[in-house]
Amino acid sequence: MLANPDDFAVRQHPLGFFWVQLTEKSAMKSLRLHVWPKNPVIQNAGFLIHDHTFSFISFVLCGEVKNDEYRVTEDKNGDQQLFSVEYDQGASLLKPSGVRVDCQLARSSVCKAGKFYSLSAPSYHATTISGNSSAATLVLTTADMGRTAHVIGSGACDETFRCERLPIDKGHVIRNLKELLLKINDGEEAADARNFEPGAPP
């Protein structure tokens, strides 16, 4: 990628990381690179908790990421609600469903360089960088389940939010990647990436 950056599309995810599609999407799996800058710009901090339409396993190349998993149950008296996610020309539309929920932290873990973490759809989670440094992860997704994705937001809100998946300056991303490669060369990443396969233990 560093040698031929024009061969890759780079976008900024609404959750603040840079997202690079490394392989063509197929019916069964997809490989992505996520680069987390030191100070990620999150478009709406009220929508960190979300699920996916696929399962995934993530390998931490360098840095540290914090993965929080949540137990979400329908509760008519809950103070939060489900927002459905629809996609429109490179953006995510977050639409309130009116379905109130109770959302409780079930498990929290910090994954350092060389470690795996995984999530099975449709579990809810939120991932952020841990500490004051940037991070990078390789993310291998499984087949799309063909369901609607959701995020958790305020139960009092009836507004639809539009979150852009913005194309960004590749030079900025390459600078971050070079910084991360220096970390790897300095020994921060210790595990063997040959074990990066679906179903590998975290």
List keywords for this structure.
globular; mainly beta; six-stranded antiparallel sheet; 202 residues; 1 helix; seven-stranded antiparallel sheet; single chain; Jelly Rolls
Could you walk me through the main structural features you see in this protein, from its secondary elements to its overall organization?
By secondary structure, the chain is mainly beta. It has one domain (5-189): Jelly Rolls (Sandwich). 8% of the residues lie in helices and 46% in strands. The chain contains one helix and 13 strands, in the order βββββββββββββα. The protein has one helix at residues 170-185, and strands spanning 10-12, 18-21, 30-36, 56-62, 64-74, 80-88, 91-112, 116-119, 124-129, 135-141, 149-154, 161-164, 166-167. A seven-stranded antiparallel beta sheet has the order 8-4-10-3-2-1-13. Strands 5, 6, 7, 9, 11 and 12 form a six-stranded antiparallel beta sheet that branches. It is globular and about 50 Å long. Residues 188-202 have low confidence and may be disordered.
Strands in their spatial order, largest beta sheet: 8-4-10-3-2-1-13
Instruction: Give the overall average pLDDT.
Output: 82
Measured on Cα atoms, how large is the radius of gyration?
17 Å
* CATH 4th-level superfamily: Jelly Rolls
Which parts are unreliable, with pLDDT below 50 for 5 consecutive residues or more?
A: 188-202
Coarse shape: globular
How many distinct domains?
Answer: 1
Task: Tell me the CATH topology.
Answer: Jelly Rolls
Q: Percent of residues in beta strands?
A: over 45%
DSSP strand count = 13
Q: Main sheet?
A: 7 strands, antiparallel
CATH class: Mainly Beta
Helix content: under 10%
* CATH architecture classification: Sandwich
- Assembly state of the chains shown: single chain
Terminal residue distance? 26 Å
User: Based on helices, strands and strand pairing, what is the structural class?
Assistant: mainly beta
